[in-house]
Amino acid sequence: MTSQLKDSSLFKQQCYVNGQWLPAQSGKLFAVDNPSTCAEVGQCPDFGAADTEAAIKAADVAFKSYRKTPARARANLLRAWFNLMMENIEDLALIITLENGKPLADARTEVKYAASFLEWFAEEAPRIYGDTIQASNPDCRLITLKEPIGVCGLIAPWNFPAAMITRKVGPALAAGCSVVIKAPGEAPLSALALAELAHRAGIPAGVFNVITALDNTVEVGKVLTTHPIVKKISFTGSTAVGKLLMNQSSSTLKKLSFELGGNAPFIVFEDADLDVALRGLIASKFRISGQTCVCANRILVHSSIYETFLQRVVDTVKNFKIGDGLDEATTHGPLIHARAANKVHDHVKDAVSKGARVVFGGEPLSDLGPNFFNITVLADMKPGMKVCSEETFGPVAAFFSFDTEQEAIELANDSEVGLAGYFFSKDSRRCWRVAEALEVGMVGVNVGAISDPAAPFGGVKQSGFGREGSKYGIDEFTITKMIMTGINT
What we know:
Elements: E1 15-17, E2 20-22, E3 29-33, E4 40-45, H1 49-66, H2 71-87, H3 89-100, H4 104-124, E5 131-133, E6 140-148, E7 151-155, H5 163-175, E8 178-182, H6 189-201, E9 208-211, H7 217-226, E10 230-236, H8 239-249, E11 255-259, E12 264-268, H9 274-285, E13 296-302, H10 306-317, H11 338-353, E14 357-360, E15 376-379, H12 386-389, E16 396-402, H13 405-413, E17 417-418, E18 420-424, H14 428-437, E19 442-445, E20 460-461, E21 464-465, E22 478-486
Parallel strand pairs: 7-8, 7-10, 8-9, 10-11, 12-13, 12-18, 13-16, 15-16, 18-19
Antiparallel strand pairs: 1-2, 3-4, 5-6, 6-22, 11-21, 14-15, 17-20
Helix pairs in contact: 1-7, 2-4, 2-5, 2-6, 3-4, 3-6, 4-5, 7-8, 9-10
GO molecular function: aldehyde dehydrogenase [NAD(P)+] activity; succinate-semialdehyde dehydrogenase (NAD+) activity; succinate-semialdehyde dehydrogenase (NADP+) activity
EC number: 1.2.1.16
GO biological process, one term: carboxylic acid biosynthetic process
């Protein structure tokens, strides 16, 4: 594998703690497999509780000095890290594709997206402002300061193994915090490559720590969420796991930001520009084979254009090429593992058993491997099917029909989660009405790709709380301290 890299030193198989590359104290390793071929890519340490505690203590020591680093110095460190990422796009993309399976083109896009958070928060670091406030007592003066919260435990997912780390680490380091990152067990190599670049950028030892675990994931998560030194947990993953981590974090009342599951509605009204809506749906639904938390899970189309739009989607997806992400001709790669493929198949079978119509695909692509599932288009979906209440996280476009705007809004909001929602219409008055009526944290109006370092990312309801990216993202890693001074005492 390292022979394919321009810089083989980016391929790391040890954890990065206190500026050093370390194995697990137990010596235990776990394999990292390529989802396309099922071949082993590498091995990483299966850190346990004692390893994790050592990383936390290293971060605590580093925090005491790093928090005093001038904001401009922190900005320069992040900028140096950003530059190194941009200089190593091809190698970082290759590592992502090998461990995650997404096509190289998507992996390159992710690296640039990941780097953009370091650039954004490098620019935000010197702009952490407090306030002066008029005190009710005229003999007092009142100000607020923003201070770094402390050691942060960051738990990242596998679907964007680089970007979901930098989106958390960028604001944490900009604010003056130190971090312990639990890399995803399915795709930890990207996090370790980022650690190597962070080391080269001059980020002080102990400020940025990356630990890996697979069999010990639950144990590591419990240490991070219950350790009194850790003051903040940021987690991206499922709602079920988020609830567990929130419960564990309550023992020490940590500050939390959780980006959890989604079930995004995608509404196409009768007055929509169908060309724009089609581009938006393809971007939202099928990016990395539907394995994004903001991808369209329920596609609601007005009955007057239902069959027309459905056919246009089929005409588009039938030209996709599914295969190994390393093949430049591949447009869509595998799912992360066989369990994910089986879940997608279960959703399709459930829908068909309840009256849905398979318009395209609908079956595993077993000849390619156990992790592949065909691009699928389902029509005549109805409430009560699993797609309505569960996030498919796969390449299934499930179409529902509606007749009125109110019906579309009710269908869209009929979910326990509320991360993202999309709709397409040329009516400006409708755009405001529907945008404000959707019970989600993020709305795409006539656009299907809403991720941007300048945009606050996060949800409502059981999709979590807190925001990542944007000017709001740094607030998640600070505390507001009030100072009142008596001037006539």
